[in-house]
Amino acid sequence: MTASLLSSPHLNPNVFGLTPSATLAINELSDELIAQGRKVYKLGLGQSPFPVPPGVVEALRTAAPEKDYLPVRGLRPLREAVTDFLHRRHGLERARRQVLVGPGSKELIFLTQLAYAGELLVPSPSWVSYAPQARIIGRRVTWLPTDFKHDWKLLPETLDAHCRSNPGLPRLLILNYPNNPTGVSCGDPELAALAEVARRHQVLVVSDEIYADLDHHGRTASIAHHYPEGTVVSTGLSKWCGAGGWRLGLFSFPAELEWLCSAMASIASETYTSVSAPIQYAAIRAFQGGPDIESYLGHCRAILGALGQSCARALAEAGCRLPPVGGAFYLFPDFAAMRERLVRRGVVDAQTLTERLLEDVGVATLPGSVFGRPRDELTLRLSYVNFNGAKALAAAETGETVDTAFLQRHTPETIEAVRRIADWATG
Ligand SMILES: Cc1ncc(COP(=O)(O)O)c(C=O)c1O
Fold it and tell me: Which of 12, 79, 388, 423 is deepest in the core (most CB within 10 A)?
């Protein structure tokens, strides 16, 4: 009997065996355990704990009646506000026309991979979705090695060696600082050196700056300063504005890459058409900024910076090694120093490490392997966001000093989760 034409063998081979994104899967597993009555500390999903700034929520309320389809590239005043924002905050000179608004920067990264027929280069570790997106499209992926000694940052000589080994090929490099999963920020001289190599080999760069405004020290380094003609800057509302569920991302292109912007806009026009109209109107308010937004960002950075440092200290005292905490809300501890002891307890790789942490002490994290690290390396990512962001933000706004006592009062679940990991590791 012949197989039905409506059966799984007819799946596109590129998506055969593709599983849901690891970050979403850990969230669902945690919720299942909670539903069974277990206490779970959710350090798995990377979502902003803070509410959307009230002025931006108000703008969305006002824009609720907006119902028309909008231009594929996005609302003109939004594209202008984003260009001005990138100039004001990050010193980037860009034309207002070359902005593309999408339903999340994730979708725009996917469209780039679809439009540009090149090999995908990603440092290991990198965010979970870049490589699966390439796989869906059937693109080749190369993980570029990094190491703890260099804070898991991509070194120019690594990029250079790879490009030299097979010169003249089109390549797309995705860089992400502040970084998910390591929480590391990258300095200007390091980005300048990478830019020099990228320019020499004509590598197209997507600078994923979704966490740029959550650099804990407010730093604004970008590879686009050093390689403007070959860099697309990716940003959005999801992280700094706490609006992941609003699904709005933005790409800013240099004039030299108008052909890419135009191709991506054509794909958008045949797929999602345009992003939700009310969300685009509200986003204008977010990117126009103002003293309320600056104050909001200042408090978010102060809370995340203090909490990140505190968690990193506790893990380092327990014997983990971690790179310096720079931005976003992630830590990437390496349990290598405890390997022998952990192996005796049946923990042989990052997957078993995360499973045991969830089973033994109820802390949900993600294994380094889903970010492209070797399976047997004992790294994991934790997102220090399982606290009531609205309450913590309100306390900071009323003038409470963000110190150890503040963290105990307003982020107790996160402090407890990390204490549990540390006790488990030393036990
Ligand atoms: C590094 C990185 N890039 C992109 C995204 C996607 O963000 P968006 O909500 O704009 O699709 C995320 C979300 O977790 C991320 O961590």
Answer: 79
Sign of the C-alpha dihedral computed for residues 51, 55, 57 and 60 taken in this order: negative
Q: pTM for the complete prediction?
A: 0.96
What would the pLDDT profile of 253-266 be if each residue is shown by its tens digit? 999 999 999 999 99
Closest CA to 223 of 42, 395, 405, 90: 90
- Ligand 1 pocket, mutate which of 239, 287, 381 (most atoms under 8 A from CB): 239
User: Which amino acid appears at position 26 of this protein?
Assistant: I
Q: Is the CB of 236 under 6 A from ligand 1?
A: yes
DSSP state, residue 245: G
How far apart (Å, rounded) are the C-alpha atoms in residues 166 and 114?
Answer: 22
- Say if residues 209 and 297 touch (Cβ distance below 8 Å): no
Residue 289 Cβ contacting ligand 1 at under 6 Å: no
Tokens of 345: 């307890």
Tally of CB atoms within 10 A around 295? 13
The neighbour count for residue 135, using CB atoms within 10 Å, is 17
Longest alpha-carbon distance in the chain: 74
Token pair listed for 201:
């080999």
**Cα 306 to middle of ligand 1, angstroms:** 23
The pLDDT tens digits of the residues spanning 335-388 come to: 999 999 999 999 999 999 998 999 899 999 999 999 999 999 999 999 999 999
- Enter the tokens of residue 199: 């320019």
Q: State both tokens at 88.
A: 């004001």
C-alpha of 327 from chain center: 11
Which residue's alpha carbon is nearest to atom 6 within ligand 1? 106
Rounded to the nearest angstrom, the distance between the alpha carbon of 130 and the centre of ligand 1 is 10
What single string gives the DSSP state of each residue in 151-175?
A: TTPPPHHHHHHHHHHSTT--EEEEE
Q: Check: CB of residue 209 under 8 Å from CB of residue 218.
A: no
Q: Which residues contact 398 (CB under 8 A, 6 or more apart)?
A: none
Q: Report CA(105)–ligand 1 centroid distance (Å).
A: 6
Cβ–Cβ under 8 Å, residues 332 and 380: yes
- Pocket test of ligand 1: the residue of 127, 176, 287 to mutate, having most ligand atoms within 8 Å of its CB, is 127
Non-local (6+) Cβ contacts of 360 within 8 A are 424
pLDDT surpasses 70 at 212:
yes
CB 210 less than 6 A from any atom of ligand 1:
yes
